[in-house]
């Protein structure tokens, strides 16, 4: 008999559980500027999510130490970020595109999220939406690289995404987003994020169960 036939393949989902609490969504943004367009885009997305019935929390990256391979793991901002990640069922990453990539501010936040923390896998099986803002013409470099990062974190990155070009023209003085196709796309992305969260949040353990780790 082939050795695979003797292994413990757990391919049948457990009894379906229907969560009744609001979907828990964590917003991460990638800029420290006072008028940060990646934060404004995330705040617009949060308003949409709340209207759709989600509970939304933000992490403020100001004061988060640079990633130093856990030498600063006891820092209050690191602890705050990790607790929020564990709390979340879905996440939105919103970054400016800088030198053709996500910002170091966004990347540093993800670097502080461990793949495993004791018996807990903080990010695995959670739903992810990615967004970017640019100061020039529309680009997709940052969202594409965030997708690579989301896969590395074993997250379920939804197909849709948002890229807001010339972001300085897309927001009112109060920070709300002007009506446009860019805002429509953010609504589309958040709607898809909610759908995937409802579909998967009760089955995270089933989705991340791996033969090689059993």
What's this, in brief?
This protein is an alpha/beta fold. 34% of the residues lie in helices and 14% in strands. The protein has a single domain, classed as Rossmann fold (3-Layer(aba) Sandwich).
Average pLDDT value?
A: 91
- Text of the CATH class: Alpha Beta
Tally of domains: 1
According to CATH, the fold-level topology is Rossmann fold
N-C termini distance: 20 Å
Pick out the low-confidence regions. 1-5, 9-13
Classification by helices and strands: alpha/beta
The largest sheet is:
6 strands, parallel
- Apparent shape: globular
Order of helices and strands: EHEHEHEHEEHH
| Helix content class | 25-40%
Oligomeric form of this entry?
single chain
Strand content: 5-15%
Explain this structure to me?
The radius of gyration is 18 Å and the shape is globular. The protein has six helices and six strands; from the N terminus they run βαβαβαβαββαα. With 214 residues, it is of the alpha/beta class. Strand 1 (24-29), helix 1 (37-51) and strand 2 form a beta-alpha-beta unit. Strands 1, 2, 3, 4, 5 and 6 form a six-stranded parallel beta sheet that branches. It has helices at residues 37-51, 76-87, 104-111, 141-152, 181-200, 204-208, and strands at residues 24-29, 55-58, 90-96, 127-133, 156-157, 162-164. It has a single domain (21-61, 70-205), classed as Rossmann fold. Mean pLDDT is 91; it is low at 1-5 and 9-13. Helix 1 packs across helix 5. Helices cover 34% and strands 14% of the residues.
């Amino acid at each position: 008999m082939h050795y695979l036939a003797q292994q413990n393949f757990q391919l049948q989902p457990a009894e379906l559980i229907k969560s009744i609490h609001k979907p828990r969504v964590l917003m991460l943004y990638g800029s420290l500027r006072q008028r940060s367009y990646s934060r404004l885009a995330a705040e617009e997305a949060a308003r949409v999510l709340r209207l759709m019935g989600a509970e939304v929390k933000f992490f403020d990256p100001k004061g988060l130490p640079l990633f130093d391979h856990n030498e600063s793991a006891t820092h209050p901002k690191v602890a705050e970020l990790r607790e929020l990640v564990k709390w979340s069922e879905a996440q939105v990453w919103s970054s400016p595109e800088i030198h053709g990539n996500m910002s170091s501010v966004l990347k540093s936040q993800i670097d502080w999220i461990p793949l495993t923390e004791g018996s807990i896998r903080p990010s695995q099986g959670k739903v992810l939406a990615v967004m970017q803002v640019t100061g020039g013409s529309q680009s997709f470099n940052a969202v594409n690289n965030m997708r690579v990062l989301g896969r590395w974190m074993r997250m379920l990155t939804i197909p849709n995404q948002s890229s807001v070009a010339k972001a300085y023209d897309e927001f009112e003085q109060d920070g709300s987003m002007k009506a446009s196709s860019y805002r429509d796309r953010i609504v589309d992305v958040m709607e898809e994020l909610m759908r995937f969260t409802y579909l998967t949040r009760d089955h995270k353990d089933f989705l991340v169960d791996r033969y090689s780790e059993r």
